[in-house]
Amino acid sequence: MTPRDGILILDAERAVIEEANPFFTELLGCSREELLGRSYRDLGFLGDRTRGEALFEEVRRDGYVRCDRLPLRVRDDGTVFVELVGNSYLVDDRKVIQFNVHGVSPRRPEAEERVTEGEEFDPRHLLRLGHDVQREVTSLLEKITEHARLLTRADAAELLVCRPERDALERVHASGAGVPGAGVHVRRGEGLAGKVWETGQGVLLHGSEPPYRSGLGAPIRWQGELLGVLGCLSDRERAFVESEAGLLDVLAGQAAVAIVNSRLSQEIEQLAVVDELTGVFNRRGLVILGAREVERARRLGHPLAALFVDLDHFKNLNDEYSHEVGDRALKEVGRRIHSGMRRIDTVARYGGEEFVVLLVETPLDSAVEVAERVRQAVETTNLATGNGTAHVTVSVGVAAHGPKTRDLESLIRRADEAMYAAKQAGRNRVVALAS
């Protein structure tokens, strides 16, 4: 979170705005008073109202949502695109939703959304993203710990995370004097944090937390699981009051989101999702990302299409020119497919000479147009070899998510059937089958 983040806090049940920070109000060109108490649905600042409604419902149900390019209407009747991250948490047993808006950028032509012809695509950015997220999470947890100390006027604060393999809490951040630094382990029932862990509830202590005289601790929870503890300590007697427990719960909720994001990034780092030859996703990456896109399309009723791309006469290409030329052909086809896609689409090498593309928010007729562009782009591929020029074409099958293709496997199978029909019709063509 940076000072240039827009922050909007809403009641999760009524969608009523409870707080907006200065950056958000400045962006919209209105005052805080104009926003508070009103339903965000009625204010008209969502450039894509249907998408905004879906995001709100998703974070209310799942506790987390992220959208990379959401159109937002701002002052002077302009439109910008923002990155939006939403999470929900409980405050005094009441669910609230916090949206963080950042990465503000002006509208760009649709063509610029596609990767340019010469741009190198490297899905290994997922691995770099994992490292970036880890650094961001570390920084955010440090800030949360510091804010807890400052907002409660404590002498020290600590943030600990659960280490099930050690049956202990590990202190990962500390702020103020007198608290041992990172790496210290705390057992169940030991000290303020241990008591929070033992009870699973917030704890307010007076005169029993040496060398401090008061302590206030909150559990860091996510979907019922205890992830850690956020605690504040003071040299003063009765330094904390019950009302400050709610404030600590809000910070603990933000810490929970950060810790969950850290876990997800670690899982990403452990996954082998990249095809080494072509640089696009491999089959495993397609399954991981594709299952999520199919589920989103099913839940929200949004269109989703699949292309099944197969190189024509690939065996003959290997036999006549060599496997090295075959590899060059695969790399070039992968590059050309990707160059015509948007960043939100998924391109993967499915196996051998086969590629699969998932086109989000794309109905069947539009997907056929994309497939034809892919076919034409590959058709111009000519590879110079020691045995003359190798010419490459592809056959493309197209299918859309529907009643008969409700999961990723059936969607890809239907696109594969369409591709086979294109082969039977003479190759180097596009065939679409209704789902």
CATH topology of the largest domain: Alpha-Beta Plaits
CATH architectural label of the largest domain: 2-Layer Sandwich
**Morphology:** elongated
Helix content: 25-40%
Protein architecture, described:
The protein is α+β, with helices and mostly antiparallel strands and 435 residues long. It contains 11 helices and 18 strands. The strands form 4 sheets. The protein has a 6-stranded antiparallel sheet with strand order 8-7-6-11-10-9. The chain has a 5-stranded antiparallel sheet with strand order 2-1-5-4-3. The protein has a 5-stranded mixed sheet with strand order 13-14-12-17-18, sandwiched between helices. Strand 13 and strand 14 (354-360) form a beta hairpin.
List the keywords.
435 residues; alpha+beta; Beta-Lactamase; Alpha-Beta Plaits; 3 domains; five-stranded antiparallel β-sheet; 18 strands; 38% helix
SSE topology sketch:
Blueprint: E1 6-11, E2 17-20, H1 22-28, H2 32-35, H3 49-62, E3 64-74, E4 78-91, E5 94-106, H4 125-151, E6 156-163, E7 168-176, E8 185-186, H5 191-199, E9 203-209, E10 212-222, E11 225-234, H6 242-270, H7 283-300, E12 304-311, H8 314-321, H9 323-339, E13 346-351, E14 354-360, H10 364-379, E15 382-385, E16 388-391, E17 394-400, H11 408-424, E18 430-432
Helix pairs in contact: 4-6, 8-9
